Structures are given as C-alpha cells and as structure tokens.
Amino acid sequence: MLPLPFRSAKDLAAAVRRKTVGAVELLELYVARMEKYNPRLNAIVVTDLLGARARARAADRALARGQVWGPLHGVPITVKESFDVAGMPTTWGVPELKDSVATKNALLVDRLLGAGAVLFGKTNVPLYLADWQSYNAIYGTTRNPWDPERVPGGSSGGAAAALAAGLTGLEAGSDIGASIRNPAHYCGVFGHKPTWGIVSPRGQALHGNVAETDIAVVGPMARSADDLDLALRIVAGPDEVDGAGWQLRLPPPRKKTLREYRVAVVLADPNCDVDVEVQDRLQAVADFLGRKRAKVSDRGRPDVDTREAHRVYIQLLRSATCGRLTAEEFDRNRDAARRVAPDDESYYARMVRANTLYHRDWLAANETRHRMRLRWAEFFKDWDVLLCPAAASAAFPHDQEGERHERTIVVNGKRVPTTDQMFWAGYSCLVYLPATVAPCGFTPAGLPVGVQIVAPQYGDRTAIHFARLLEREFQAFVPPEGY
C-alpha cells in the first residue's frame, strides 16, 4: 500500500471516517510536506492555513458527534489558481491582477467543500492559462517532481505537480487545450476532461464573466481513477438556474471488464508526430488489451478528416479565447491577419485569423464542428473507447524564451513546433467529448507517460471506468523518487 500522503482521496476519507487519522492530523501532514518540498517545486502558490485548520478542527468535532459532511470529509485539497476562492487571489498569472481577491467561491469549490473537503491552497498556472508550462511573473515557475529541469505541464501544471509529489489529496483543473490532460501525462497522475457543459464553470473566469466559454471545461485531477469518479459525481450538474429545468444523468460504463471493451488505438497522426517512446507505451497498453482478449484495432477511426479537424479546432479555440484581447491587441492581430499569406497554415497564421474572425466565418466553422460531432457519434456505435496520446512527447525542458508559437520541442530527434501537439488536445475536445488520462508507464529515461482515453459524448463514466481497469490491471500511480 502507498504511504499515506500518496493514497487516493477516497482512501483518505475512509481513514478519517474510521478515525485512524484525524482531519487535523491529515492536514498537518500535507502542510509539513508542502513546507518541505514545495520550495523546490513551487506547485502550491497561495494558502489559507488559518482557515483550513479551523475547518479541519470542525471536521473532527463533527465526526465525534457522528456527523459526516460528505464523501470527502476531512480530506485536504487544493485547486487551480484560476478558481475563485473567497479571500484568496484569483489572477490567472496576470500581473495586473495580482491584488485581485475573490469575494465568493466558484461553484465547483462550493461543491467540493459541501462534500466535506478541507481546502488549504491554490496551485500555479501560466499567464492566462495559455501554455503547456506553468510559470508567470507573480508566482514564478513550477517544476516537475520527476525532473525539476522539466515542465509539469499547463495550464493545470501546479495541480499535477502537487498531486504527484503528495502535497495534496485531490485537485481540480480546467481544460480547453489539454490543460488537465497534458499535466496528468507529464506528471504521471490521473485527469478527466468532462463532456462539455456537464460541470458548471461558474467562478472560473476572468473579471467575473459568467458566459460559458466554447470548448472549455473544468474537471478533477487525482492519483486514482476512483477519485476522478467520486469528484465528478460531486461537481457535475447544472447551476441553480439551469437546475430548475434539467438534471444530469450520465450513463453507466459501457462494459464491466477489459475483455468486453472494443478499443480503437491511434498512435500518431500526420498533423502531429509522436515520440516513439510515447508510442511504445501506448502500444504496450494495446498489446496488454489484446492479451486480455479485448477487441483492439489500430485502424478504427471516426470518419473525420484530421487535417480539417485540427484547422477548425485552432479556429474555434482562438476565437473562444480572443475576448481577453485589449483593443490594441485586437488591432495588432487584425493587422497581422492581413499580412499573412492566404495559404499560410502555420499555427501563428491560424491564430491571428481566428483572433479576429468574422462571426459569419465562426458559424461556418461551428457547423463543420457539429457535422464532425455526429460522425464521432457514429464511430462510437462500433467502438467503446479510442486510445491516443495526450501529447507528442514526455515532459520537455523548461523554455520561457519568446512567444509560445515560436518555441520547439524534440520529437524523434527533430525540433518541431511545440504547438503541433495541440492536435492531441483538440482531437476530442473540439467535438465536446470526454477524455481521461491515465498513467501507462515510463520512458527509458524514467519520465511518466499517460494514455488519453476518449469516450462518446456523455460517456464520462466509461472513460473513467476504463482508466480504473487499467489502473488495477496494468499501471497504477507511482510516486516519484525523493518525496
């Protein structure tokens, strides 16, 4: 059994309920670990230890009276810095917002607290949540527990690093461009990107905005698939306004055992090459499933042109995030869009065009997206899940020079644009599909690799259940050495 700090939130809650460990004792364990290891990692960047200690004492008193607040009673947790927590700053790494303090909790935070959690801090993010690294001018750089010279991912990089190092019991992240999935992959933990719209993002937006952002979701990160399932059950569902008219009823997992699953496997794509060390780990999963007598195919694919899908994803992604541009930035993007050649399909050209897209063109892209969504639905009549990479490589070295679209990573010995791997971000989330990332082993250099498990729309429990089966029979969470 794993040491106490690395156990699942579900196990921690059970230990508190059995009174084998107190809520105060458990909180102090994580605080002590944070004080010891966080200076090296810089994963947890904001804390409220006074409030957390008061809540932990109240949790112990309640339990002594026979009162259980919920399934996370007494479990110490942190959340991504972008979620509002009353009395704590919410900056998204933006220097101009360094003194911005939330006055109320995000809905997801309230639901986790309602389930009994003890929230003691917030974890680091990149500027505007817009990088696969996690650094900003306010809080500095977060490092990967497996190799501090490498990134933990982004934008939920602090969350993944804190989980992997055993500094927190459970986490919550957000994802519009693999911001839950790539940190889980880089740090060897579990992450779930829910079906779009099933978890309210209220209180996870700049400037108090309340309109739901296209493609973007919020969801759980953890050290076990059971925790993903538990946390999703807690946080999913409409807010109080939408809840007056509809309820969420996610279908159960499609199958019970690995042998019953029909699994399509994608190792690489012309839009984004994948390092052979990552492909090898995904192939190992496919080979294992074959030995388990699951139906596995490397030819099963949705009837979708992946080049068009990637183009539309970048178009809608950058359109979804362009609202944060100032008037001057918008004008610069409009000028840049006019200067790029009509046949320029680089990430930069696609980005500046999308940042200034006419609504008529957005509607055309949205129609294309929804036609693809229906083709994916047809695909999932024959297949239960699709396995694919979460990123093009394992965690890469820190690189904070220049603009993101100018940077490169090494894939199969060649320097390629880091933005190429946005393909694996958009493959599923362009069309609103849920995807779970689960650990599937390590590269020869000892870096974690995760497999992305894509399921049909509203098939969140299928994706998580498949991850649970892999966790039990193939690869569970492994703590990094030295923690």
Report on this structure.
This protein has 483 residues and is an alpha+beta fold. Among the domains are: 4-258 and 460-473, Amidase signature (AS) enzymes (Alpha-Beta Complex), CATH 3.90.1300; 306-371, no CATH class. It is 36% helix and 14% strand. The chain is built from 14 helices and 15 strands. An 8-stranded mixed beta sheet has the order 6-8-7-14-15-11-9-10, with helices on both faces. Helix 8 (276-291) links the parallel strand 9 (262-265) and strand 10. Helix 9 packs across helix 13. The radius of gyration is 21 Å and the shape is globular. The chain starts with 8 loop residues before the first helix and ends in a 10-residue tail after the last helix. The mean pLDDT is 98.
The CATH topology of the domain at 4-258 and 460-473: Amidase signature (AS) enzymes
CATH superfamily of the domain at 4-258 and 460-473: Amidase signature (AS) domain
Outline the biggest β-sheet.
Answer: 8 strands, mixed
Tell me the number of strands.
15
> What is the CA-atom radius of gyration, in angstroms?
21 Å
Major β-sheet strand ordering: 6-8-7-14-15-11-9-10
User: Percent of residues in beta strands?
Assistant: 5-15%
Mean pLDDT across residues: 98
DSSP summary: helix tally: 14
Q: Which class best fits the helix and strand makeup?
A: alpha+beta
Q: State the end-to-end CA separation.
A: 16 Å
Please write the CATH class name of the domain at 4-258 and 460-473: Alpha Beta
Subunit organisation of the chains: single chain
Unreliably modeled segments: none
Residue share in helix: 25-40%
Brief account:
By secondary structure, the protein is an alpha+beta fold. The chain has helices at 9-18, 23-41, 49-64, 107-114, 157-164, 181-187, 225-235, 276-291, 306-321, 327-339, 347-355, 359-379, 422-429, 460-473; strands at 44-47, 76-80, 118-123, 135-136, 140-141, 171-175, 190-193, 217-222, 262-265, 295-297, 385-389, 408-411, 414-417, 435-442, 448-454.
